[in-house]
Design a protein that fits this description.
Strand order of the largest sheet of chain B: 2-3-4-1-5-6-7
Number of domains of chain A: 1
Largest interface: A-B, 33 and 46 residues
Helix content of chain A: 10-25%
Shape of chain A: globular
Radius of gyration of chain A: 12 Å
Structural class of chain B: alpha/beta
Distance between the termini of chain A: 28 Å
Number of helices of chain A: 2
Number of strands of chain B: 8
Strand content of chain B: 5-15%
Strand order of the largest sheet of chain A: 1-6-2-3-4-5
Helix content of chain B: 55-70%
Strand content of chain A: 25-35%
Distance between the termini of chain B: 68 Å
Largest sheet of chain A: 6 strands, antiparallel
Structural class of chain A: alpha+beta
Largest sheet of chain B: 7 strands, mixed
Oligomer: heterodimer
Bound molecules: guanosine-5'-diphosphate
CATH architecture of chain A: Roll
Radius of gyration of chain B: 31 Å
């Protein structure tokens, strides 16, 4: 599937749409209870000074999560670009 | 605030109202508005989750108990907090009825996500009222919500309120009273056919007795949360439940439904249908309102600088502002002791109990209050403003690798002032594993009570021999020691010891809000009161116990023998010598009594254990006697070495001289730099502080309190032995 990456690889200000979630059962349950559902739109609004964790805007509110957990969330970047985290603003 | 006392002839059972909701929805604020200062904090039976409850007086005079449940996003009981929410609402706490009414507090600016928990709660079948909170902010952000229409769609009363100002609280109380007599039900979720058949498979494969005890409302939770519900351990006979769960889940999988994701999908579809056409989504321009300063506050440079500045302010306030207050408390209790001492001369034992046991015991509790109140003032401001989440966000990476998380920072920092308030402050950490690790390592930070020990030893043995520079280095090293030990210990504890699954670090960033002083004040009041009532009693009991060990058995002969010796040494009549024991030689008499006390005997008995650290029986005894509080070691040494009383500086100076002159029976000096360092290392590591132990027990149970005491004592002994042995090589002229 081209154009699909994981949330931990998005850069600051990137937006995307959740495609699917995959990972530890309890993590998935928590994420989905919070509204991380396929189809939801999100934006990376902050990256912590040490590069981890990141803050996501989702459905009008904000939550931060660690890159390790963000890797469970497959997203399709809104601009169709798969980016790797090379630069931390 | 109402001051009316509850009616004396209380009804047989008070109605219970439970407040439930997501974190940051204003639950505690609403709780404060409903109960005023009629609040208490206790524990749920058998677990260490705090139970905040209070009394609500309805306008008609009727009273009810209000329970402020921990904030939760879901009923899937992954953390102890969430389990409590689930257990209380499902009526699974032994000896407690399920609440008569559940008030679901929802954030109007975030209705969709908030309704997820509400719809789960609704399935448990309790009468429900929805408090639609923070409508003021919603309005500002351009979110319009028609509460009437919401009520009709949801099937339960929806009352718009502003908990912060108290607007709408009256209407909420009316709705709650109304629902008590005619319960309302939230629009139930309609499960898909595969889910329904999986539920009936589950029901049929459970034993009939178990199925009827669990009731139909709990079945969906068993199916969806499966492992977490049974792992919670509060379902009898795990095997009887996990087999059927697996069978039902397999049936779901066979029909192409994922048992892990089906609940959230179904509920959010249900919620979206309920909200269809009701909520006008905010204008995107307003969506980031309340977040605008985040760019600055979480900036990698400025954000860190502001963070450092704020933490410095918090720390120095605890350290320096609390100091005069603590001194005042100390002075007040010293005056009290003085008064008691002169008033009770006729009853020496009772006098000693009051002067040396009770008064210092109560004073030892009261002296913590300034620090607790100051720390909880800051925690209140940091939490209610939303900054605490940012601080945790900034610091998380630093702590994550050793099993802690960003929220461990404030407690660890505060521990440098005092572990007692810091441990109470760990309540802000949701993840049970990170919280327990933080509790277990925070006492390693060098608190201000260790300072007198360092000052005494450095002043007597480091500074005179090596100069001011090395004295400073030694003081700094003592403070760094705990910090640098805590990190690997935390790693080991959370990696190998704690069999608790860590929670994923999912941290909501609430919008910035102005904290209300009144809510901050109530938080301070709650924690101060709880400390005095719960930990205070334990501290007092131990103070009296240790007093008894230093006072008894007080053999008759001690005084006579001493008078005899003095008479012979000085060539004076025995009567004259005896009189000296009440004046000039009083310190020597006190010292002799102490040597003969149980604790003095224990010092002799245990000394061989501490011999490798270079401790003689006097130091050993002082270590034992300082169990209630480390700083006591200085005054105990003062008594052992018969130092005349005086003001603190004089006593310390004289004590230093005495220590420097102390000899083993064979004439070698007891003290030198090596022993001094060993003593400092011992006190840097040990957990000689009843208050800390009592608070650990309060926060995580006695088992962990004993564990903390055990590992820190072992560490202290090892550290002291290592310091002495290495030191003796390095300072050959010193001790050995
Ligand atoms: N604007 C506004 N803020 C509120 C309201 N109710 C509570 N808050 C604020 O929201 C924050 C979180 O409140 P708190 O009671 O601690 O939430 P809890 O985590 O659910 O207990 C605090 O800063 C409160 O002052 C309200 O009705 N309107």
């Amino acid at each position: 599937m081209s154009g699909v990456t994981t949330l931990d690889r998005l850069r600051l200000r990137d937006t995307g749409r959740i495609v699917s979630l995959d990972g530890r059962e309890d993590l998935l349950q928590r994420l989905m209870a919070l509204g991380f559902l396929p189809g939801a739109r999100l934006e990376v609004v902050q990256v912590a000074p040490f590069g981890d964790p990141i803050t996501i805007a989702l459905d009008g509110w904000r939550i931060s999560l660690r890159l390790g957990d963000a890797a469970s969330i497959a997203v399709e970047p809104a601009n169709g670009r798969t980016s790797s985290r090379t630069e931390v603003p | 605030m109402a001051t009316a006392a509850p009616a004396l002839a209380a009804p047989a059972r008070l109605a219970t109202i439970a407040l439930a909701g997501n974190p940051n929805t204003g639950k505690s604020t609403l709780f404060n508005r409903l109960t005023g200062s009629r609040q208490t904090v206790s524990n749920y039976p058998g677990i260490t989750v705090h139970k905040t409850s209070g009394t609500l007086i309805f306008p008609g005079g009727r009273t009810a108990t209000v329970l402020d449940l921990p904030g939760a996003y879901s009923l899937a009981p992954a953390s102890p907090d969430e389990r409590v929410v689930f257990d209380v609402l499902a009526g699974r706490i032994s000896g407690t009825e399920p609440p008569d009414v559940v008030v679901a507090v929802v954030d109007a600016t975030n209705l969709r996500r908030n309704l997820f928990l509400v719809s789960q709660i609704a399935d448990l079948g309790r009468p429900l009222v929805i408090a639609l909170n923070i409508v003021d902010e919603a309005e500002k952000r351009g979110i319009r919500l028609d509460a009437e229409l919401l009520s009709r769609r949801f099937g339960v009363p929806v009352i718009p309120i502003v908990a912060k100002t108290g607007a709408g609280i009256g209407a909420l109380q009316q709705a709650v009273e109304a629902v008590m007599s005619s319960p309302a039900q939230f629009a139930p979720v309609v499960w898909s056919d595969p889910v329904r058949s999986a539920l009936s498979i589950l029901r049929e494969s459970l034993s009939p007795a178990l199925a009827s005890r669990l009731g139909p409302q709990l079945l969906p939770r068993l199916l969806f949360d499966g492992t977490t519900v049974t792992a919670a351990g509060n379902l009898d006979g795990n095997g009887a439940v996990s087999g059927p769960i697996e069978r039902a889940r397999q049936a779901l999988r066979d029909s192409g439904t994922n048992p892990v994701t089906v609940e959230a999908g179904t509920r959010y579809r249900h919620i979206d249908a309920l909200l269809d056409g009701i909520e006008t989504r905010p204008d995107p321009a307003f969506a980031s309102q309340g977040y605008s300063i985040d760019r600055l506050l979480t900036h990698r440079l400025f954000g860190m600088m502001i963070f450092a500045g704020m933490m410095l302010a918090v720390f120095s306030s605890i350290y320096w502002i609390a100091q005069p207050l603590m001194d005042a408390v100390d002075a007040a209790f010293a005056m009290l002791a003085e008064a008691a001492s002169s008033g009770l001369t006729a009853w020496p034992m009772f006098r000693s109990l009051v002067v040396d046991g009770l008064v210092p015991g109560v004073g030892g509790v009261a002296v913590f209050l300034p620090q607790i109140l100051i720390l909880f003032f800051f925690i209140g401001i940091l939490e209610d403003s939303g900054y605490m989440a940012r601080a945790a966000f900034l610091m998380d990476k630093v702590f994550a690798w050793c099993g802690l998380n960003g929220k461990s920072f404030v407690p660890m920092l505060s521990s440098f002032a005092c572990a007692v308030p810091a441990l109470m402050g760990t309540r802000t950490i949701e993840d049970p594993r990170a919280r327990l690790s933080t509790i277990l390592v925070s006492p390693l930070m060098s608190c201000s009570a260790r300072l007198p020990v360092y000052v005494l030893m450095i002043g007597a043995f480091i500074q005179p021999q090596f100069g001011v520079f090395w004295a400073g280095v030694a003081l700094f090293a003592m403070h760094a020691l705990g910090l640098f030990t805590a990190v690997p210990i935390a790693f080991l504890i959370s990696r190998f010891l704690l069999r608790i699954r860590p929670l994923p670090f999912l941290l909501e960033m609430p919008p910035y809000r102005m904290p209300r002083l009144c809510d901050v004040g109530l938080r301070m009041f709650r924690s101060g009161r709880e400390f005095v009532l719960r930990a205070g009693t334990i501290i007092l009991a131990f103070s009296v116990l240790i007093w008894a060990a230093t006072y008894f058995p007080r053999p008759e002969g001690v005084r006579g023998d001493l008078a005899q010796r003095v008479a012979v040494e000085r060539g004076i009549p025995i009567g004259e010598a005896d009189a000296l024991l009440d004046s000039e030689l009083a310190p020597v008499l006190r010292s002799s009594y102490l040597e003969q006390s149980y604790i003095g005997r224990a010092g002799h008995l245990i000394q061989p254990v501490f011999a490798p650290a270079g401790f003689d029986w006097k130091i050993t005894m002082a270590v034992l006697a300082s169990f209630p509080a480390r700083e006591v070691v200085v005054s105990t040494l003062g008594i052992v070495y018969s130092v005349e009383e005086g003001d603190d500086d004089e006593v310390a100076q004289r004590l230093g001289d005495r220590l420097a002159a102390a000899e083993w029976p064979d004439g070698r000096r007891v003290y030198g730099p090596a022993v001094a360092i060993a003593i400092m290392v011992f006190f840097a590591y040990c957990l000689q502080c009843v208050s800390t132990i009592a608070v650990i027990a309060r926060e995580s149970g006695w088992r962990w309190a004993l564990f903390a005491f055990g590992y820190m004592t072992a560490l202290a002994w090892l550290g002291a032995v290592a310091a002495y042995q290495i030191g003796s090589l390095g300072f050959p002229g010193g001790a050995a």
